Amino acid sequence: MTHSNIKSNLLTPTNEDTLGPYYPISLCDNDSMDLTKIRSGIINEPKGEKIIINGCVKDINGELANGCLLEFWQTNSDGIYRTPDNETHPDLDPWFIGYARNRTPDGNFTLTTIKPGINEELNAKRAPNITLTIFSDGIMRVVTQLFFEDESSNENDPLLRSVPEELRSRLMIKNDGQNEEGIKTYKIEIIMAGEKETPFFDDFAS
Amino acid sequence: MTQYGRTIEIGPTDNTSNERTPRHPLHLIPDSARASFAPYAPYNYGINPGEADMTRLAAGRPRADGDPIKVTGTITDQFGRPIRNSLVEIWNANKHGRYTHIEDQSGLPLDPNFLGIGRTISDENGNYEFWSIRPGEYLARPDIGRWRPKHIHMSIRGGSSRLITQMYFNGDPHNDADPMRILMGDNFDKNIGKEYDTPGKEFDCGYQFDIVIGGKNPTFFENDIA
Ligand SMILES: [Fe+2]
């Protein structure tokens, strides 16, 4: 069977649509933006360095984009994603999930997590990163991937290298000191549209 | 060499779409990074009994105003393989076009018996069903008189499958001017619930809304959906 044959047999997908302004806030009640706690009231913590990322999503006018639903996805500190094919991987951290979501009322967010790592075996060239999916009013789902500005591994990352050099800094989570408990803090600004727009990726065409 | 994918279009007459739609074409993802773009949501939803029946606040409570409807469908990937055990989140306006959302300041009438939020899970064959009240249309742009047609919001999440969409109703006079309907073009048909009779049932009618989740994400972890 040729490639085009396979393609023509595929079902036509249902169109994605906007989130609208009224995604029910309560549907996020069981979701957490603290990935260092696998559930509430548990003493165990994941391996790795705990970090806090303060971020925001802005529109073409530099205004905060209120009401977005944000989904975060990352590896553990050993560079392993918690996917079914990694279930028995020795470096899978049973105390880390790596998936967070939140509806931001005003466009700001705070993600408390573990700094994602690199796995030499599975994805040696991938620099530590966090995938971010944004659902919003006025637009279908958009996805991007964020990196840490101080990582030397960024240089060889195939995704970063595929983005024009002058745009790469827009994908960088920046150092922002530490909080009063000594936890390293970072910041990132996502610009949905306009001159300083964050690069977004096409996960349908690729 | 940079390669580009789709350019997202701005929904006509949709201010928020204008403010939030990236102008630059989307960047293609190199193969070696592609799998990392498929988030795998944990199956941690605790659904309470009655959440799929949005026509009442709870069993034994009075039914909400308006026409009760049933919505049924099958969720598959593009190969037709069922996407099972997926969380289906549903939200829609009441018969007057008002959401119970705290940020809906339209002032349209609330219904003391309608929450407008439901959840269910697709079964082993990818089938789902829920009951709701046929939503009302609402004026989205009073300045130009543009309405949002009747629609039900749905989010599907399970494993690496992810879709947020809206089900529309055939023949709604406001369909044609809807910004996202315009962008969907001929494919709008995929987002219409197909009406069927439910004789003898306490529902006005049923709508068949089969959902196909496109792209590669649902196919990355086939163990999960086979
Ligand atoms: Fe809506």
Structure in a nutshell:
The complex is a heterodimer of chains A (206) and B (226). With 206 residues, chain A is mainly beta. Chain A has helices at 3-9, 120-123, 158-162, and strands at 50-58, 68-74, 99-104, 108-114, 129-136, 139-148, 172-178, 184-191, 201-202.
Write down how many β-strands of chain A occur, each being a DSSP E stretch of 2 or more residues.
Answer: 9
Order of helices and strands of chain A: HEEEEHEEHEEE
According to CATH, what is the topology of chain B?
Protocatechuate 3,4-Dioxygenase, subunit A
Low-confidence stretches of chain A: 1-5
Describe this structure in words.
The complex is a heterodimer of chains A (206) and B (226). By secondary structure, chain A is mostly beta strands. Chain A has helices at 3-9, 120-123, 158-162, and strands spanning 50-58, 68-74, 99-104, 108-114, 129-136, 139-148, 172-178, 184-191, 201-202. The radius of gyration of chain A is 18 Å and the shape is globular. Chain B is built from 3 helices and 12 strands, in the order αβαββββββββαβββ. In chain B, strands 2, 3, 4, 5, 8, 9, 10, 11 and 12 form a 9-stranded mixed β-sheet that branches. Chain B has a two-stranded antiparallel sheet with strand order 6-7. The mean pLDDT of chain B is 94. Strand 9 of chain A pairs parallel with strand 1 of chain B. The complex binds fe (ii) ion. Residues 148, 151, 153 of chain B line the site of fe (ii) ion (FE2).
Tell me the layout of helices and strands:
The complex is a heterodimer of chains A (206) and B (226).
Chain A (H helix, E strand, L loop, with lengths): L2 H7 L40 E9 L9 E7 L24 E6 L3 E7 L5 H4 L5 E8 L2 E10 L9 H5 L9 E7 L5 E8 L9 E2 L4
Parallel strand pairs in A: 1-8, 6-7
Antiparallel strand pairs in A: 1-4, 2-3, 2-5, 5-6, 7-8
Chain B lengths: L14 H6 L6 E2 L2 H4 L33 E10 L9 E5 L25 E5 L5 E7 L4 E4 L4 E3 L2 E8 L2 E9 L9 H6 L7 E5 L8 E4 L2 E3 L13
Parallel strand pairs in B: 2-11, 2-12, 9-10
Antiparallel strand pairs in B: 2-5, 3-4, 3-8, 6-7, 8-9, 10-11
The complex binds fe (ii) ion (FE2).
